[in-house]
Design brief:
Elements lengths: L14 E4 L1 H5 L9 H13 L8 E2 L12 H7 L10 E2 L3 H9 L4 E7 L2 H8 L3 H18 L2 E7 L12 H13 L4 E6 L6 H13 L7 E5 L6 H10 L4 E4 L19 H11 L7 H15 L6 H5 L1 E3 L4 E3 L7
Parallel strand pairs: 1-8, 2-3, 3-4, 4-5, 5-6, 6-7
Antiparallel strand pairs: 9-10
Helix pairs in contact: 2-11, 7-8, 8-9, 10-11
Length: about 325
């Protein structure tokens, strides 16, 4: 059975951590209204998603699309059993998060100095130093805390990344108090043997499997294969974005994040519990695709689900508001 978001998932239960409202929207140039974002968040919760990364408290000038983070969190109708983490980069963002009534945060670093320097203007060590007081203060509040380790499989500026460095950064984040570390395939270059290897190295470093998540990009079509590899190694928490929105702006031609609807279809077919309704996810995916003025191009978004009893596609005609 499913547990609360803070609980450890059972072996037959997969946690889906939805990143569409934050990672999916942050690099989109077309402005999305506050009302649209709130409706999107509502549809995601309607679909059964219980961890939804809502926004980011970075400087408004840095990510204009998410400059309404304060208003969004103040207006967001909270639901029992649903966690709405936000990205917090520094103490200024932390102060805003406190005022907005946040109770779960994520911090963002990488395994490559070249990437963090280009992305946030700091080396990896400097970013960890900056996050130390943020995570400590969140801990004083009793907030849930996540740490992202981006470029876990490759960097767009320096190429291959040593997996030992990836694990070392994750271990440091855990020392700083995060409840969970998330390894990110930022430019979508990972393949299954690398996923299994990184998981084994993390376990050898005494990082518990239940405190590991993976964030795969489908840039080169390997996201679901990587999910399967991670699951074979015991991982049960995966990030996904409805409609496959988002992805790394530093990866030309990136196809975006792993689509929530593609992940849900796979898990349904395998028979693993996850608590998310595929038709509901498709409603949310079509809603945000329409808001962005883009066609829904994900595999399951186009084909729909499938009912083995009738042989018919499902969910293809739902989602227009």
């Amino acid at each position: 059975m499913s547990e609360t978001p803070a609980g450890r998932p059972a072996a037959d239960h997969v946690r889906i951590y939805e990143v569409g409202p934050r990672d999916g929207l942050q690099n989109e140039e077309r402005p999305i209204s506050l009302a649209t974002k709130l409706r999107y968040l509502e549809l995601l919760a309607d679909a059964g998603l219980r961890e939804i990364e809502a926004t980011s408290f970075v400087a408004p000038s840095a990510i204009p699309q998410l400059s309404d983070a304060d208003e969004l969190m103040a207006a967001l109708p909270r639901r029992a059993g649903v966690r709405y983490p936000v990205l917090v980069p520094n103490l200024r963002g932390m102060a805003r998060a406190e005022t907005a009534g946040v109770d779960a945060i994520a911090v963002f670093t990488a395994a490559s100095d070249a990437f963090t320097t280009r992305n946030i203007g700091m080396t990896v060590d400097e970013s960890l130093e900056a996050f130390t007081p943020v995570l400590a203060r969140a801990g004083e509040h009793g907030w849930w805390r996540r740490g992202y380790v981006s470029t876990a499989f490759g960097c767009p500026y320096s190429g291959e990344v040593d997996p030992a460095r990836v694990v070392a950064v994750a271990a440091r984040l855990l020392e700083l108090g995060v409840d969970e570390v998330c390894f990110g395939d930022t430019i979508g270059v990972a393949v299954p043997p690398q996923v299994r290897d990184l998981t084994a190295r993390a376990v050898d470093a005494r990082i518990p499997l239940e405190r590991i998540a993976f964030h795969f990009h489908d840039t080169r079509g390997t996201a679901l294969a990587n999910v399967a590899a991670a699951m074979s190694s015991g991982i049960r928490t995966f990030d996904a974005s409805t409609g496959g929105t988002g992805g790394c702006p530093y990866a030309p031609g990136a196809a975006g994040n792993l689509a929530t609807e593609d992940l849900v279809y796979l898990l349904d077919a395998i028979g693993l519990e996850h608590g998310v309704d595929l038709d509901g996810v498709l409603v949310a995916a079509r809603f945000i695709a329409d808001a962005l003025g883009k066609p829904l191009s994900t595999k399951v978004g186009q084909a729909g689900g499938w009912d083995p009893r009738t042989g018919q596609a499902t969910g293809r005609d739902r989602g227009r508001e």
